[in-house]
Amino acid sequence: MSELRAALTSRRATVQLGRALARVSRAGGLIVLDGPLGAGKTFLTRALCRELGVPGELPVTSPTFALVQEHAARLRVLHADLYRLGSADEVFELGLEAARREGALLVVEWGRPYLGELGGDALIVSWESPLTTRRVLLQATGEGARTVLDALPEALRGLRWRAPLSLSGSLTTDAHTTGAPTQGGAPADAWTQGAPRALHCEPGTEGSA
Questions:
Q1: Strand pairing class (123-127; 165-167)
Q2: Is 151 domain-assigned?
Q3: Domain residues for 119?
Q4: Which of 100, 132, 176, 183, CA to CA, is 20 to 30 A from 115?
Q5: Is the pLDDT score of 96 beyond 90?
Q6: SS3 21
Q7: What is the pLDDT of residues 134-178, one digit of tens each?
Q8: Cβ neighbours for 171, distance < 8 A, ≥ 6 positions apart
Q9: Residue 206 lies in a domain
């Protein structure tokens, strides 16, 4: 299982992660958000949807009672909240796996117990304890999700962060350039090398790249 860790040091960093996820996600993908109430799952989803083209005047809120909300953008996004469901049968009856087969991108809060019913091959975003650390662990459980995860560091770099990004504490980009990352002063092509991998996300700007 491929892994990536991110330290979300600000709300802006969470927005940047959501935007980067939108840039690398594909039709038929599955993103599972796993964290306690108030962690930022819906906030992250909103940033993802905005990057995909959901207009700002359309609300992106937690579908706690509706269970599933659909957003039409560059991808058809189904945002689900399974917190109130108690069985795999209830999840199956929502038709999420079928929608995924038809090309929908699923973003599912509280979906970790139901990966099978959602079709597997998920990118799981987990908020680590204690919540005050603002750290998330991203895990790919299949080949499709692994492709998304491998593309994520480059997508983050493309958003023109003002502070460096670092991988495993050694791979960095200059804060004021958009050139290739360097390791030990030399160009590096290791953004996706090694597992588990740690990506430390410092706060930056919401670049329009």
A1: unpaired
A2: yes
A3: 2-201
A4: 132
A5: yes
A6: helix
A7: 788 999 999 999 999 999 989 988 886 543 343 332 223 333 333
A8: 181, 182, 183, 188, 190, 191
A9: no
